Write a sequence for this structure.
């Protein structure tokens, strides 16, 4: 596949953009074919599941807990005085499951793992380790990209669930300080949310998992130059992933939740 | 494997990237059992030629024959198994830095050969012994010196029993003692295993003592070819200038 080749440098933004979109498409197809065809590097996939999933869980939980807390701080201070304390838990649950948990998971994993993927693959590219893989008749896509994509697809929904739970716990602590009891908080969640709110949020995390791993891998594999090149690739991987996550989030929200 | 065909051959090989022509119609033949040196200044196109020879770069036009197969028109997927016939030793070894020495040398074997763990362990131990390294299996590349890294890179290339080994600047970045040891290793492997080798370097001293034939590349073209003695006696002004500069540098 052409991503493995030394490709010419495109200076025109239009060509560069088309090349980027094409590379993402090629990586997506190659990854899906690899996963569906069972050509999986088991050991590397498990290693990446630990890195992307288990090691990211604490920071995803922490940021989600604080976000749940601050959302509740605003909503409770408004709703309790207006006699709407029975809506605080539900409002938070809706916000967490549909929007905040997937987005926070995406942002935190982009910062933590997207940058690391781009930096590692970029360093491997400039130190000829990618060429060494190819020289040993091992496809860099199969060995490096597919395990990361698969690991992210498995772990992101779990991280999304952790974010949901941590956000609700953080929110409940603050709601409690406003005098809202556990029963009222849980009752409100049951009243205002449906199972599809959770499922829809988790579908979002799957799309974000693909965006982060494919963009970061593509940027890493197209690194040129020395240490500065790795730095540029890492920055681009984070910025492009974040922008695409927010853009995809809008369209997914429209697709999944607009009618509800 | 037919030995009537050359081990490697290029015909009118052209490689261009970013609008710049790096290789301008290279015709080169490497016979079995010889150590061919490709000499040239930095930027002359010698590493690009090496990467075209092993199929890491796809030529813009022309032919690249590896043991009787023209790999130029083949896709990456089709070229992959053919690469196992070649061993490549990269300029800075290109060891996988997250794997130990053992895992680096065993990497290709674990993926392409149906061998037991004990057999792989034996091959790894043997290849490391060939390059004069023992007891380093559990070290990581960052714990090795530059010379040791190059030798591990060679052991990794030799693990797959290649017919031909390509060396990219084997002596660069090494002190004279280590460089000499690597050169002796190439000579010994050629003599004892009848290994065909292509050595790309700008180190004239190193090429003169290891190669049976040398070609000099300048600006993407072969400007001189012959035995080390013939190259030394060449009257081509660019060859003479390069040799004089190299001698002055060596002093």
């Amino acid at each position: 596949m052409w991503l493995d080749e030394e490709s010419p440098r495109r200076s025109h933004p239009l060509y560069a953009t088309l090349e980027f979109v094409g590379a993402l498409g090629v990586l997506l197809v190659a990854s899906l074919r690899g996963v569906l065809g069972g050509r999986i590097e088991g050991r590397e996939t498990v290693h990446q599941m630990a890195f992307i999933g288990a090691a990211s869980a604490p920071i995803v939980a922490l940021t989600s807990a604080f976000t749940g807390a601050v959302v509740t701080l605003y909503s409770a201070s408004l709703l309790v005085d207006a006699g709407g304390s029975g809506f605080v838990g539900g409002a938070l649950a809706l916000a967490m499951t549909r929007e905040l948990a997937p987005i926070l998971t995406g942002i935190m994993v982009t910062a933590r793992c997207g940058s690391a993927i781009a930096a590692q693959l970029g360093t491997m590219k400039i130190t000829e380790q990618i060429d060494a893989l190819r020289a040993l008749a091992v496809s860099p896509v199969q060995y490096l990209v597919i395990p990361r994509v698969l690991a992210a697809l498995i772990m992101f929904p779990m991280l999304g669930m952790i974010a949901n739970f941590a956000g609700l716990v953080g929110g409940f602590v603050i709601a409690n300080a406003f005098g809202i009891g556990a029963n009222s908080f849980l009752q409100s969640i049951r009243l205002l949310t449906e199972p599809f709110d959770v499922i829809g949020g988790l579908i979002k995390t799957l799309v974000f998992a693909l965006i982060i791993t494919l963009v970061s891998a593509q940027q890493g594999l197209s690194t040129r130059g020395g240490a500065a090149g790795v730095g540029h690739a890492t920055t681009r991987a984070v910025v492009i992933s974040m922008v695409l996550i927010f853009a995809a989030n809008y369209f997914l929200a429209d697709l999944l939740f607009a009618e509800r | 494997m037919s030995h009537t065909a050359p081990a490697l051959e290029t015909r009118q090989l052209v490689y261009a990237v970013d609008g710049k022509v790096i290789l301008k119609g290279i015709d080169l033949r490497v016979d079995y059992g010889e150590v061919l040196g490709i000499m040239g200044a930095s930027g002359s196109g010698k590493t690009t030629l090496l990467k075209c020879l092993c199929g890491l770069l796809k030529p813009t036009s022309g032919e690249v024959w590896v043991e009787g197969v023209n790999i130029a028109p083949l896709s990456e997927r089709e070229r992959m198994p053919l690469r196992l016939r070649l061993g490549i030793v990269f300029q800075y070894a290109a060891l996988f830095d997250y794997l130990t020495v053992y895992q680096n040398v065993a990497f290709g074997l674990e993926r392409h050969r149906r061998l037991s763990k004990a057999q792989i362990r034996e091959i790894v131990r043997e290849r490391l012994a060939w390059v004069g390294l023992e007891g380093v299996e559990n070290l990581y590349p960052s714990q090795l010196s530059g010379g040791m890294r190059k030798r591990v890179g060679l052991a990794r290339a030799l693990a797959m029993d290649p017919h031909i080994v390509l060396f990219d600047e084997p002596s660069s970045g090494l002190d004279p003692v280590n460089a000499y040891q690597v050169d002796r290793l190439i000579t010994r492997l050629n003599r004892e295993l009848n290994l065909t080798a292509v050595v790309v370097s700008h180190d004239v001293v190193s090429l003169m003592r290891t190669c049976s034939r040398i070609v000099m590349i300048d600006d993407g073209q072969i400007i001189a070819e012959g035995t080390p003695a013939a190259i030394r006696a060449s009257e081509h002004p660019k060859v003479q200038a390069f040799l004089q500069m190299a001698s002055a540098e060596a002093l």
Observations:
- DSSP finds nine helices and ten strands in chain B.
- The domain at 1-83+163-251 of chain B is CATH 3.40.50.300 (Rossmann fold).
- The mean pLDDT of chain B is 91.
- The two ends of chain B are 45 Å apart (CA to CA).
